[in-house]
Amino acid sequence: MVHEQLANYFAKFVIENWDPEVYLIHHVPKSAGTSVSGMVHRQSYFIAYPRTGFAAMNSLLGFSRQLGEFENHLHTDRIYIGGHYNLPEMVQKLGTSVRRRGVSLTRSPTGSMSSAIRFVWTNVEEGDPFWTAAYPSLDAERLKWVRKAAVAGDSDGLMEMRKLADAIMESPKFQENYFDLHSKYYYNKDVQDVFALRRLFEDCPDLMPSVDLARDEAAVCGHLGVDGPIPRVNESVFSHKHLALAYGGEAAFIAVIAPAIVRGAEIYGALCMLQAPKVSEVTLAA
After folding, report:
1. Which of 47, 110, 122, 129 has the fewest Cβ atoms surrounding its Cβ within 10 A?
2. What residues contact 212, with CB distance under 8 A and at least 6 apart?
3. Are residues 73 and 142 in the same domain?
4. Do 189 and 176 sit in the same domain of this protein?
């Protein structure tokens, strides 16, 4: 791994030397950020990501590779900074001299946790070498058999689905990546509560929080200056409905994951309030 400041140097270099429009595509894992970034990239815009793995690098920490990609895009007057990063820290790095605009994508902590479980399950079942190595206790064929039985409504299949989902959540790798998810991306030493988070967005009026991409699709595209529709990628092999059913229903599933989403629920509520229309904007029925 390489130091984050060095890995992020290319975006800083472009901002200082090209003077482009800068847009953020900040997204909490499992909030459709990959779909949004893919849409932007297909419209010939460059997206800078932290290059933190040697496999993605050449020359000066991937600098020449990124420069080639940037210059080959049609729109060098604009750069997007995408990925899973801490939003307050990114806003601070950009400073007040750069117009801070774009979107911050998230979803409910329940939806994030469900999506994460099903994402890991799907990748292991499909034999992805990275995920099978990260979760060695899971067997692809067993996952496939249990998933088919559970989706068909078999009671034994549903029971086994819950046991396997519990095993995924108990994995240190999963807990590192997905527990207390929202606070990793919205809180830091300066932003430690929902009041500070609200001030952050008030200071960045061109930065739009979105807690429901399906509902906000047109607004998200407008904030990013691109055309929709937003494609769906990384589909899971089974739905949230089946996962919740394996736990005995939505309420039971939420009760099981509650310890991992306490601060996430707090942050999610604050972001929902930021999107709520102001009283003056609401037309009351006569």
Report:
1. 129
2. 107
3. no
4. no
Dist. CA 143–CA 97, nearest whole Å = 51
162-212 pLDDT, tens digit per residue, is 999 999 999 999 999 999 999 999 999 999 999 999 999 999 999 999 999
Give ∠ CA 72-70-68 in degrees, rounded to 5. Answer: 70
Domain that holds residue 131: 110-180+234-275
140 token code pair: 């692809």
For residue 249, report the phi and psi dihedrals to the nearest 5 degrees. Answer: 125, 170
The pTM for the full model equals 0.85
Q: For the segment 89-134, what is each residue's pLDDT rounded down to a tens digit?
A: 999 988 888 888 999 999 999 999 999 999 999 999 999 999 999 9
Residue 232: phi and psi, rounded to 5, are -105, 125
Contacts for 150 with CB less than 8 Å, ≥ 6 apart:
157, 158, 160, 161, 238, 242, 245, 246
Q: Decide: 85 and 29 in contact? Cβ < 8 Å.
A: no
